[in-house]
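Lecture notes, unit on protein representations.

Consider one protein chain, 111 amino acids long.
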Amino acid sequence: VPVLVLGPRPDLLNRARPVLTEWAAAGVLARTVLVLNAQVPIPLQRHLAAQVADVLAGSVRSVIAIDYDQHLGSGGALDPGGHLLSSQFMRGLGRLAAAAVRPSLTQAKAV
């Protein structure tokens, strides 16, 4: 399953349009899990993520918003046990993993 990561900002969505157009033409976009990854800890990010998700929701397999994580934002080392990562961030990763392995509607109908 292709995964495309974007920051939840309209300007980044506009910059990604050429890639989105190419992927749509190649039939890849409909199978893609779009990850909206908050890169800064500002409350407006959720609102912007919702706007971007609304624009692309019908074009991609699923849209997953992952909240900003203070530990990752600080540049700290990854903790293999995940003890330093926020529970919100870990839930976002869980949603991403589930979306990537869940059969798409077309695959489910083919079974």
